[in-house]
Amino acid sequence: MTKERLMTGKTKLLGVIGHPVEHSLSPAMHNAAIAHLGLDYVYLPFPIAPHNLEIAIAGFAAIDVVGFSVTIPHKQAIMPLLSEITPLAQAIGAVNTVSRQNNQWVGTNTDIEGFIAPLQTTYQQDWSQKVVVILGNGGAARAVVAGCHQLGFAKIHVVGRNVQRLQEFANSWNNSPISENLQVHQWEELPKLIPQANLLVNTTPIGMYPKVNESPLSVEEIANLPKGAIAYDLIYIPKPTQFLEQAEKQGAIAINGLEMLVQQGVAALKIWLQQETVPVEVMRQTLQNHLGLG
Ligand code: NAP
């Protein structure tokens, strides 16, 4: 239940910057949490065109914005405008959360925390002998690679379709300890990788609404996934995706992208409010309602 609340002369500002930003689910999720906590904050959508980014961030400082989320197309472009960037965000090369600390902008990336949260809470185990196979080498794959490294995976295999982008992806980790466990592969190598996977992650948009009948893998390919492996799809609508449905039929454990979305928001709100307790269930339920999954 959300409580009624009013803005006051002291209302503090949070928000999300993006272009476009009107489809963002973050305002609904964060405002529900703020209302539940009875705090005098508001979280607003800020549509900011790329050429206005610098001036907008200067304006945010002038009006004492407490913090903001960053979405497409600003996740990399914001980095030179910040005073500090956490090592995690530096490793990924993207910032999704900014907070004002000691009159300076500090950037971090909570997608890693969002990604690993359901793995840690539901399947507590030692990952140090485990193998992960990651489909896709875009922005989300970077957070997944960093998250798997943080969990201690023995081998991190990333599979992509474009040789040049795949090589750039591999090279981008050259100065990081992550490169020791990371290998990139072309899509044709999947038949030899899938039987080794303890965790198989889809970071491609294949299977996302409205193309709900598509899957990044054929039934034959997924049939080689070991029993008891975890199949994790970053997509949160539909629930489940074709990919997860097929994997579950093979005896795999399925995780969909909704919890990652919830937990990256939870981690951001904790930073802005500087408190450890935020109403996770309210945030989850709000997202489910907005996605028609409620
Ligand atoms: P992105 O940067 O555009 O990356 C997409 C990746 O998928 C690229 O490597 C792309 O390959 C690959 N790909 C796209 N279509 C493909 C196809 N038909 N066959 C093979 N590979 C294909 O996007 P992103 O930001 O990483 O997001 C990816 C997905 O994750 C989206 O569905 C997004 O909604 C989801 N996501 C979920 C969360 C969450 O909180 N649950 C967070 C972030 C993202 P190329 O490089 O060759 O184009």
From TrEMBL:
Subunit structure: Homodimer.
Designated name of the protein: Shikimate dehydrogenase (NADP(+))
Gene: aroE
Lineage: Bacteria, Bacillati, Cyanobacteriota, Cyanophyceae, Nostocales
Domain Quinate/shikimate 5-dehydrogenase/glutamyl-tRNA reductase: 125-204
Domain SDH C-terminal: 257-288
CDD domains: NAD_bind_Shikimate_DH (cd01065)
Domain Shikimate dehydrogenase substrate binding N-terminal: 16-98
Catalytic activity as recorded in UniProt: shikimate + NADP(+) = 3-dehydroshikimate + NADPH + H(+)
Pathway: Metabolic intermediate biosynthesis; chorismate biosynthesis; chorismate from D-erythrose 4-phosphate and phosphoenolpyruvate: step 4/7
Domain of life: Bacteria
Binding residue positions for NADP(+): 136-140, 234, 257
Binding site for shikimate: 24-26, 71, 96, 111, 236, 264
Entry's Gene Ontology molecular function annotations: shikimate 3-dehydrogenase (NADP+) activity
Documented EC number(s): 1.1.1.25
Active site per the UniProt annotation: 75
Keywords: Amino-acid biosynthesis, Aromatic amino acid biosynthesis, NADP, Oxidoreductase
InterPro entries: Aminoacid_DH-like_N_sf, NAD(P)-bd_dom_sf, SDH_C, Shikimate_DH, Shikimate_DH-bd_N, Shikimate_DH_fam, Shikm_DH/Glu-tRNA_Rdtase
Transmembrane segments: none
Similarity annotation: Belongs to the shikimate dehydrogenase family.
Function: Involved in the biosynthesis of the chorismate, which leads to the biosynthesis of aromatic amino acids. Catalyzes the reversible NADPH linked reduction of 3-dehydroshikimate (DHSA) to yield shikimate (SA).
